[in-house]
Amino acid sequence: MHLTPVQTIIMILAITAGTMITRFLPFVLFPEKKKIPVFITYLGKALPSAMMGLLVVYCLKGVSVLNAPFGIPELLSIITIILLHKWKNNVLLSIGSGTIVYMVLVQMIFV
Amino acid sequence: MQNVRKRAALKEAFIAAFPHTIPVLTGFLFLGMAYGVLMQTKGYGVLWSVLMSAAAFCGSMQFVAITLLTTDFNPLQAFLLSLMVNARHLFYGISMLDKYKGLGKIRGFLIYVLCDETFSISYNIEPPENISRKYYYFIISFLDYLYWVSGTLLGGVLGNFITFNTKGLDFVLTALFVVLFIEQLKKKENRWTGIIGIISSIISLSIFGQDNLVIPSMIIILITLTAGRKKLCT
Q1: Which helix H or strand E contains B58, and what residues bound it?
Q2: Among A12, A48, A61, beta carbon nearest to B184
Q3: What ipTM does this complex have?
């Protein structure tokens, strides 16, 4: 332990405060009883798919296409997920299979 | 009598919601354990890692915070970094304003634990007709929170006890986001916004690098959505 217990508690509180501001702010700015501005309602509908796209890129941010294995395990696993999801349309099956394909690829093939 | 009915409604909500959280169960137990183990190796025992997970509950920021806990004491820096790393929650909140309307006391808890995974599931997967919305969102949020804290606890207690090869297991969360992204794209009105999200993030990744990807992406997304509002609305 690098910090003292009191310092550690202060650090935990600081990180919690930062996180909770980002979580509560929208709900504080646009309370339930007030009418939400039209622009915000629009954002509320348009943002989720954009943010899901961001999360996908965020998860893959560390993948290098220039160095071996060139992102091939990720690409193959995502193709598996897309094809399987088109075919069976089962969320858990697609996620589970994609993960297993990825684990096999990085553990046995692209070691 | 009322209690019995409440319990039955909660149970039904659990049965409807639990399956959707299974990928998070896998990912959070695994990553939570990794976090507990990592904290342990830096000299922060299970009490500290669980306290951090239970209070801040902010996945990636907690990993960033390990560095902060092993350098000079600087809470202001920790606070600002936490604001920045977690800025994406602002957009989750805006997206959930409508769904989290009229849920009473539970709402505060739902907001407190609104992480990437809970947002993705709660936004994408509507509760079945006969299920209480309030309980459905509560179960998803509570379970995801529980998985993360339990994972941390297990990691802190057991340490490096896992012997089977877990390499690549964390891909389960990537897979979750990929599938829920496909689900989003099924609706015609979401196609362009989804593509905007992907392209904005790739642009921001190539300019700002992987450590500073989120906020520039959010800004590009916001500008594009604002500029294209008339086209995207129709």
Answers
A1: none
A2: A48
A3: 0.92
What is the chain A residue with the closest CA to B65?
Answer: A15
Our CA dihedral for B152, B158, B162, B168, rounded to 10 degrees, sits at 20
**pLDDT, tens only, B120-133:** 999 999 999 999 99
**Phi/psi at A67 (nearest 5 deg)?**
-110, 155
Q: What is the distance in angstroms between the Cα of A92 and the nearest Cα belonging to chain B?
A: 7
Residue A18 in contact with residue B205, Cβ under 8 Å? no
Residue A89, φ and ψ in degrees, nearest 5: 55, 40
Cα distances from B166 to residues B20, B124, B156, in angstroms, run: 22, 29, 17
CA distances from B84 to A20, A21, B215 (A): 12, 11, 7
Where exactly are the structural domains of chain B? 2-165
Question: A91, A103, A106: best mutation site toward chain B, by most B Cβ within 10 Å?
Answer: A91
CB contact under 8 A, B86 and A91: no
Q: Give the pLDDT confidence of B36-84 residue by residue, as tens digits.
A: 988 988 899 999 999 999 999 998 899 989 989 999 999 999 999 999 9
